[in-house]
């Protein structure tokens, strides 16, 4: 192996090490983006839950007043009046909890955006948490995409290339080294003397030291090749798990959008009319109202989990999946 070939191999190794540094930086970027997206959508969900808590408080306050009036005129029972008061107090407490959770969510978002420990809303969010159907993913498409863009896989493949180069360099240690020198001499005050030197160094102990280097490089190459397949298997497992979670959350969102929310809203509208006309008791109305509140709150949590599962897939695969 010539000097130029060794020089080329070392330059190629440096280039691949530079690529590894780039992919590690890209991997950090993908993780940070996923964290910011998750924190951002968490803020949107907490804002929506705060709106639901505010609406619930208004309803509870209105019916607490109505229950008091009904009791005073003899149309309602004391149990109804006390229950309405408890519901009103509980609604105020739920509003305070929702407000605190929103501040915590903002603190987390500010942290990932680099604003330190600030917990206030330093900007206005223009979005709202709504269900926007995205392109349908399949596990095979996502896994094949991860094979081409995932940074961990890229790094492991580059490590194989580096190990292969190191093996070639180890074999080159068996060859003699050539040394070429050029010098200028001065004799008796005369500077016009020039000279050159040429030498060859032969590795006399290559049977032991150089052979060990070759065996080590060969073993490192085998390990690197094994780690590539291990990394691919690990990514496949993560994609499969995250994809299953995504599909479950998507089904939950569709169930709420198509069935649970419309039905709970119809139940509540019917209960309001029936309660105003005296057809049902306050406790029956309360059950209908609680059904609607729970449905709306659960839907927000399910919708958040749906988006978080997408962001988890993006982090595993190594690129964005949504517009």
Tell me what you see in this structure.
The chain is mainly α and 323 residues long. The chain has a single domain (3-317), classed as Outer membrane efflux proteins (OEP) (Up-down Bundle), CATH 1.20.1600. The chain contains six helices and two strands. It has a two-stranded antiparallel sheet with strand order 1-2. It starts with a helix and ends in a 6-residue tail after the last helix. The model has no long low-confidence stretch (mean pLDDT 83).
| β-strand number | 2
Q: Considering DSSP H and I runs of 4 or more, what fraction of the residues is helical?
A: over 70%
- According to CATH, the fold-level topology is Outer membrane efflux proteins (OEP)
Could you tell me the radius of gyration in angstroms? 35 Å
What's the rounded overall pLDDT mean? 83
Q: What overall geometry do the principal axes of the alpha carbons give?
A: elongated
The fraction of residues assigned to DSSP E strands is: 5-15%
> What is the topology, as strand order, of the major beta sheet?
1-2
Report the top-level CATH class.
Mainly Alpha
What is the H/E string? HHHHEEHH
Largest sheet: 2 strands, antiparallel
Q: Which superfamily, in CATH terms, is the homologous superfamily?
A: Outer membrane efflux proteins (OEP)
**So how many helices?**
6
Q: Which structural class should the secondary elements be placed in?
A: mainly alpha
- The number of domains: 1
- Give the distance, in angstroms, between the N- and C-terminal Cα atoms: 52 Å
Low-confidence stretches: none
Q: Any guess at the CATH architecture? A: Up-down Bundle
